[in-house]
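User: I'm writing a tutorial on reading structure tokens. Could you give me a worked example: one chain, its sequence, then its tokens, then a sentence or two explaining what the tokens reveal?
Assistant: Sure. Here is the example chain.
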Amino acid sequence: MDVRYGSQFGTIQHTFTGTADTDVITSPSSGVIFNQLVRAAGTPDGGITVSAGSSGTLEVDAGPDDQIITVTASTSISGSVQLTDTSANVDGISSYGAGISNLTLRTNNNIASTQPVLGGTPASTDGTLVNVPSLVAATTLRIYTGASTYDLIRLGGTETVQNAQISTGAGHNAVMLYTDGDDSTTATIDFGAGSGSGNGLGLGNELDLFGGATAVLNQIGSTSHTVVVDTVNVNGGGTLDVAHASTIGDIEVDSLGTVVVDAASTIITLNNNGTTHVQAPSTISTLTGDGTTEFTGTANPSTVSTVNAASGILTVDSGATIHITSDSTIGTLNVLGMVDLNGSVVGTPLAVTALTIDSTGLLDIGKSFL
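And here are its predicted structure tokens:
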């Protein structure tokens, strides 16, 4: 194994030759980055260990045949990452010690056709499985999948992972966030700008939240773009925070889930059986479910094409205006701001079981009927 300075093409500083050894690299410097490019099959039996003065980074890049990346240990002063070459059934361990507070994982840019199954061995056609069951809060985690497709990223479960950053989205990539039952796994996720055609949807990327995990959709990096993701499932007390302009194909919210839309966004289908707060001007094509949906004053104006929520609650706060443009059914409608059907097709019916209009509220049905 060659150790190079500056880049992978830099001058060779040292060469390790023992295949059964543990290769140890240390630096007294602060902020040093160790870029580990050795694939699993080329890693010495004793692994590779790095340490630094302070604020160091270990970046582990998967090789073409490395289909599993697993964080196998994490403490306040050390940790380890295992690459698995599933075709050769070979593991390679990279460990870090004192002075390493940042961990970066990169998948192999392979164009796959199927997604790996949790707990199984990826097939040759599968993307890469990135599994981080726990990580101490003192370690900052960044994950990049680049051009890889059908990758599966799983954070948390054994313990939690906090404040991770994930950049993914080339196609059919999935992110799953779990908790340990008491603390919340948290991650900021950028699924990229989408397909580049129409509304950008169609790449099949997915986000799944379980057991109180929190995901923030936001732009990572300096290239300005709308974040595009096809499917988001918010389960078991999970929270989705849409913090950057986004286009989302389908959001499914269970009875314990929460969605907060903090940036102007387009949502094709919102099936809300939990709680959703729309706090920025947004467009929702179809709103369904039995949960509570609130449009705050900062969501002015917003458009909902169709509401099919016979048992749901829709609240429009003071200062907010929402336009409903098609036949709709609402269980409870609380109007403190403005609900406008004036731009809908003539004769559009709005069916409401319970209607409350506050002193600040206005329901403008135009040529429609209630």
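What the tokens reveal: The radius of gyration is 24 Å. Residues 272 and 289 are 5 Å apart (CA to CA).
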